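User: Hi! I have a protein structure encoded as tokens and I'd like to know what sequence might fold into it. I'm fairly new to this, so please keep things simple.
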């Protein structure tokens, strides 16, 4: 049974930082691409950052230079370091190994 569990969300002021973590179990983690998605109120879920099994990364334009995705295959963990946060980064952030999803963690950025 595949489980993805996110943590690290919270309330932060604009310009602040948060680090999200995702713990994976029940899957051969090292051979899978991972992604962080977010869903803002009233909007569709979007891919924020992805990382391939080789470590190649990609980001949505709005977070380039501010967010960094990384993975630790030995610990079955993926991280999202979010710096210079903006109110428009507010949303529920989900970790995913398609087709599996975590339960999400809320990130709220106040202006």
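Assistant: Happy to help. Inverse folding works backwards from shape to sequence: for each of the 111 positions I chose a residue that suits the local structure. Here it is:
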């Amino acid at each position: 049974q595949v489980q993805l569990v996110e943590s690290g969300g919270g309330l932060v002021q604009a310009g602040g930082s948060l680090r999200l973590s995702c713990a994976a179990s029940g899957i051969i983690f090292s051979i899978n691409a991972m992604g962080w998605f977010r869903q803002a109120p009233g909007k569709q879920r979007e891919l924020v950052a992805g990382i391939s099994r080789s470590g190649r990364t990609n980001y949505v334009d709005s977070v380039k230079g501010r967010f960094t995705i990384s993975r630790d295959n030995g610990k079955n963990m993926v991280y999202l370091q979010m710096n210079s946060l903006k109110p428009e980064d507010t949303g529920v952030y989900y970790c995913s190994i398609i087709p599996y999803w975590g339960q999400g963690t809320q990130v709220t950025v106040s202006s």
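A useful reference point when you look it over: The CA atoms of residues 81 and 110 lie 18 Å apart. Feel free to ask if any position seems puzzling.
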